Protein 1
Amino acid sequence: MVEGLGRNEQGADGPESAEVSSSSEPVEARIGRVLVRSSLAMAIPVLVGGLLAGGSKGLYSAGYAEILVVVNYSVATRILVWCARISPVALMGGALGSFGFVLVLLTAAIIPVARASWMDLVIFGVALIVAHLVPVIVTASRVTGKIAFDGFRPSFRGGGHSGAGSN
């Protein structure tokens, strides 16, 4: 379950902490905060992997990638929260716009240091991909589980279901 996503439809608290679940903070902000926390939790394995793969050069490259990921999630979250206040269409536009904006920010952050003596582009690229994907995969599975456990699972009551063991 995603930490701090709040109360379910019946008002019952999940395993998340009471102070977070009673918050009136938007869901987009809570999910963004979980992504940032997950990215920070990934920092140690990413940095150790960079150090083992490329020594101090790999460590610096992986660290720079980790910083960019945390900034990326923070900027995208702010954009999505702002757009969600306007309308669902603005939220979708904000998601697409923040993706483009963050790509420009990442490009602008990478170009000046691409040829720096401390930069290993292969380690940087792998660290950037891992640091982006692992928190998204973990958070997506938790959010999906949260939705399912809140009673949004499809119901197969009645005669319309023919499961794997049915004839």
Note: The radius of gyration is 20 Å.
Protein 2
Amino acid sequence: MIYTTHIFFAYFFSLLLLELIAPNLQLDVKIKLSIVAMIASLFPDLDHPQSFISRGNWAILSAITTSVTEHRGATHTLLGALVFTFGAAIGFIVFNATIIYIFAFFFGYMTHLFADLLTITKIKLLHPFSNKKYGLGIIRTGSDAEFWLQRFLIAGVIVILWHSVAR
């Protein structure tokens, strides 16, 4: 998946989850948590030197990551999600953020993995415990199907935000 799909995927599913479990949460808080999830959804691609997140501010972390794993390797696993969330948690604690932001980061990271489960290349979700690749294999990165998925996700975000504001 391309980075915009990961962002839209995280935005849609984080808003949906918050609407389902905390419908009375203030909209600005929902948006802040969704922003954390959207940023976190880019972290698994630190293992690809040409990815959107690997440019600019995150280039050093990307260089370290790409030196120890290949694309769709360790960062595209449940263990990778836990390791990066632990690192993010330290940052959130330093800045006195509430624990909900740590959960938002983990959720956003996981949306990346779930989106990649739709791709034809699949991922080794349980690595290093298993080398089995998991996925549905129904969307090719950059394909028309991926762009239709983006349109669906954007429409879903609009509906959720409209519903949240209309209440």
Note: The helical segments are 3-21, 27-40, 59-68, 78-94, 99-116, 144-166.
Protein 3
Amino acid sequence: MQIISIILAVSFVIIAVLHIFWALGFKFDIRNMIPVVNGEPVFTPGPVGTFIVAIVLFGFAGVSLALGYPTKVPINYLPFLKPAGIAIGVILLVRAVGDFKYAGFFKRIKDSNFAKYDYWLYSPFCLISGGTLLYLSMNLT
């Protein structure tokens, strides 16, 4: 369980750091990272929103680690650990399923770079990490 939580936490930290780079203005090809229709982004994330996503991802990493090392968690936080893990797991599974239009396994718009990355990378990561968080949460002793 501990190795699984470490791998999951490191994955979330890496993604959070990428979001921080993006928020600080480092240029990435945005067409690979957000949905695009007719060559135009569906939305343009701002630096503040991107930074908030990074903070949330760091939180996901913290919950992942805490689920693997519950004896290291302060006693006042233990009652919230299992519900937090379940909530994050469900959020990630919902993201994997998607909005049935732009993102997720069941998206309708499938002809962009983002759609390819989403199908082969983003949605599978959400599915695996969401399922893993649910597994860790349900097996919390």
Note: The CA atoms of residues 19 and 112 lie 21 Å apart.
